[in-house]
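hiii, so i know i said id send this last week but things got crazy w the move. better late than never?? heres the sequnce for the chain we talked about at the cafe, plus the structure i predicted for it. fair warning i was half asleep when i ran it
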Amino acid sequence: MASPPQSSANSQGVLYHGQAIRDPSPAKPMKGFLTGLSKLVLGIVIALAMLSIAGVATARYFMAKLAVPPPKPLYGSELPAPPPPDSTAEAPGATPPAEAAPDPTIEASPAVVEPVATDPTPVATDEPLPPGSYAAVVSQPIGLVIRSGPGTEHGQVGGVDYNAEIVVLEEPAGQGWIKVRVAASGAEGWVKAGNIRRQE
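okay and structure toks below
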C-alpha cells in the first residue's frame, strides 16, 4: 500500500499532493485594513452630512420665526373704536327684558382691560411763564433724569415721571439738552432734548 504523499513547505507556499499552493494570508490583512479604513471614512462623511443637514434645518426654522415682525402696538387714537350702540335700544319708559340666569357650568372669562389714552391737563401755574419758555409734558415712557448741567458728566439732581408737567426754560441750540422746571415740585435742571411734548 502506498503512503499518502507528504506535504513539504518551501518559500513559495505549501506543497500538497505534489502541487505548490500559494499562502493567501499576506493579502488578507491588507484587504481587511482597507475595508476598515473605507468604513471609517464613510462613517465620518455620513455623520458630517447629517450634522450639516440638521444645522441647515435649524437655521431655516429660526430664520422663518424671526422673519415675521411682531404685531404693531396700538396707542391712543389707534385703538379700535367701540362698537356702535345696539339698534334695538329700549324706548324710554319700557320695562327691561328679564336677563337669563347665568349658566354655572360656563366659566367667566377674565375681563380684558384696554389701555386708556390720557391727555395731560395744561400746566396750571399761578405765575406767568418767563419769556421764551413754554409748558410741556414728558413723553419718554420711562421718565427722565434731571441733571445739574447740560450733559451726562453733570450729576443727577432728581427725576421726572412720564406725562409729568414741566416748564421749558431754555433750549440752547446744538446742545441736545434743555433746562426745565418741574411744575409739581419746582425742581429745576437739565434733561435730554427730544423727550418732551409741547402743550398747546
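btw DSSP finds one helix and ten strands in the chain. thought thatd interest u
miss u guys!!
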